[in-house]
């Protein structure tokens, strides 16, 4: 169990170590290293997802570990309340950024082992704090530099607690 303590409240996350071991271990590593503390939810799109894990409040991108293999082909679906790895257009480019689905986004699921079909790897779910997720989803957003959909008032991950 992982708890993100944000300036809006706590979000608890359960990892699926069985079906998404690479993504889960990667996320857990960043959590244990304190990487996410002081990062923000930097992309919020109502009805779609909230994304975090890469930027500070000043929109400075944090350095990450090497990318991991995409596990979107493991049968987990991007449904409301699941957490998945964010990535670039390259299928196997996920590092530290993640997103939490606030809608049923099965169009993000794996459909083929091609660049366009790989999908986004789900590796867990929100077990408590969906009310906080819904609050985040409704915040006013703006553009900051090259980044769209950035909350006007920063939503900060202040502390990360990992329990066994």
Brief synopsis:
Keywords: Isomerase, Rotamase. It catalyses: [protein]-peptidylproline (omega=180) = [protein]-peptidylproline (omega=0). This protein has helices at residues 21-32, 130-137, and strands at 2-6, 9-15, 39-45, 49-56, 82-85, 98-101, 122-128, 141-144, 147-151, 157-162.
- Strand order of the biggest β-sheet: 3-4-6-5-7-2-1-10
**How much helical structure, as a percent, in the residues?**
10-25%
Strand-residue fraction?
25-35%
User: What is the CATH class?
Assistant: Mainly Beta
User: What is the CATH topology?
Assistant: Cyclophilin
Number of strands: 10
Order of helices and strands: EEHEEEEEHEEE
Give the radius of gyration: 14 Å
CATH superfamily: Cyclophilin-like
Q: Structural class of the secondary elements?
A: mainly beta
The CATH architecture can be given as Beta Barrel
N-C termini distance? 6 Å
Low-pLDDT windows of residues: none
Number of helices in the DSSP assignment: 2
The shape is: globular
Mean pLDDT: 97
Question: In total, how many domains does the architecture comprise?
Answer: 1
Largest sheet: 8 strands, antiparallel
GO molecular function: peptidyl-prolyl cis-trans isomerase activity
Domain PPIase cyclophilin-type: 1-162
Family: Belongs to the cyclophilin-type PPIase family.
Catalytic activity: [protein]-peptidylproline (omega=180) = [protein]-peptidylproline (omega=0)
If you had to describe this structure to a student in words, what would you say it looks like?
With 164 residues, this protein is mostly beta strands. It contains 2 helices and 10 strands. The chain has a single domain, classed as Cyclophilin-like (Cyclophilin). The protein has helices at 21-32, 130-137, and strands spanning 2-6, 9-15, 39-45, 49-56, 82-85, 98-101, 122-128, 141-144, 147-151, 157-162. The longest helix is centred in the first third of the chain and has 12 residues, at 21-32. The N and C termini lie close together (6 Å).
């Amino acid at each position: 169990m992982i708890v993100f303590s944000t300036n809006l409240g706590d979000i608890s996350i359960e990892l699926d170590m069985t079906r998404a071991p690479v993504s889960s271990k990667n996320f857990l590593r960043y959590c244990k290293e304190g990487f996410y503390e002081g990062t923000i939810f930097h992309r919020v799109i109502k009805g779609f997802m909230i994304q975090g894990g890469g930027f500070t409040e000043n929109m400075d991108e944090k350095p990450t570990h090497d990318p991991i293999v995409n596990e979107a082909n493991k049968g987990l679906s991007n449904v409301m309340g699941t957490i998945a790895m964010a990535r670039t257009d390259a299928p196997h480019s996920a590092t530290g950024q993640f997103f939490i689905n606030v809608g049923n986004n099965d169009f993000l699921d794996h459909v083929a082992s091609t660049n366009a079909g790989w999908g986004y790897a789900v590796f867990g779910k929100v077990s408590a704090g969906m009310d906080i997720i819904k609050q985040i989803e409704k915040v006013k957003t703006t553009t900051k530099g090259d980044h769209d959909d950035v909350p006007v008032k920063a939503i900060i991950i202040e502390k990360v607690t990992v329990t066994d």
